[in-house]
Write a structure and sequence with these properties.
Blueprint (H helix, E strand, L loop, with lengths): L3 E8 L5 H10 L5 E4 L9 E6 L2 E5 L2 H7 L4 E4 L12 H19 L5 E3 L7 H9 L4 E3 L20 E2 L5 H8 L4 E6 L7 H16 L3 E3 L2 H4 L3
Parallel strand pairs: 1-2, 1-9, 1-10, 2-5, 6-7, 8-9
Antiparallel strand pairs: 3-4
Helix pairs in contact: 3-4
Length: 219
């Protein structure tokens, strides 16, 4: 039986990532975290309210340790709608976001996730020109890899998709299952428990293995 590679990514660098990382480490699962360098202060800061729950941003003082062993990708410097600003400004935001993350984490950053999942051809070109090997959208693809264009890399689904397991099974023939989300979307204990059960079920699947997003594109 062929092995399916399972990859996942999480956006925005929020404080709930600490609980998420604990779950992933407990189950030896890999993941990539998409970060906006301009959104972080030296220490934790309040962010916004999501469905009545306060969302916080992680501080730089904790991110090296927290994300140790996980992938880091660029989510742009400041999280704008890149297709709605001048392309020169978009390119600068993309490039500076990558540069700051590389300097801070001391490693190469080659992945990208579009803020709000929005983009156009010019933005795709800017992402490619600034050294990224893939760019994740918020679309859906039953067979996500290899993408028709790496700058429009559509995942299989969001982690809360009602048809998550159906999409998981459909992805087997293509060899890659890719899901994404934000850890702050888990706003109750049952949601956290359900997510951990998902991770445990994938880990127990002898025909699946956790993989690294950037490694899919390594030559």
């Amino acid at each position: 039986m062929s092995t399916m590679t399972v990859v996942q990514c999480w956006d925005d660098g929020v404080t709930a990532d600490a609980r998420l990382v604990d779950i992933l480490r407990r189950h030896r699962a890999t993941a990539t975290f998409n970060l906006n360098a301009a959104k972080h202060a030296p220490e934790r800061q309040p962010g916004w309210v999501f469905k009545g729950t306060q969302v916080g941003r992680l501080g730089w003082n904790e991110m090296r340790e927290l994300y140790s062993g996980f992938g880091i990708a660029n989510h742009s410097l400041s999280h704008p709608h890149l297709e709605q600003i001048a392309i020169e400004d978009a390119r600068k935001d993309i490039a500076e976001g990558r540069d700051r993350l590389e300097q801070f984490f001391g490693r190469q950053v080659t992945g990208f996730a579009y803020p709000f999942g929005t983009y156009n051809e010019a933005v795709m070109a800017a992402v490619r020109e600034t050294g990224h090997v893939y760019a994740r959208t918020t679309g859906k693809a039953d067979q996500p890899f290899p993408p028709g264009d790496p700058m429009a890399f559509h995942p299989c689904c969001h982690f809360l998709a009602p048809d998550f397991w159906e999409r998981y099974e459909r992805a087997r023939s293509g060899g890659v299952f890719y899901f994404w989300g934000h850890s702050y979307e888990m706003i109750s204990e049952p949601m956290w428990a359900e997510f951990e059960a998902k991770v445990a079920r994938i880990g127990a699947d002898q025909s699946a293995r956790w993989g690294d997003l950037a490694a899919l594109f390594a030559k």
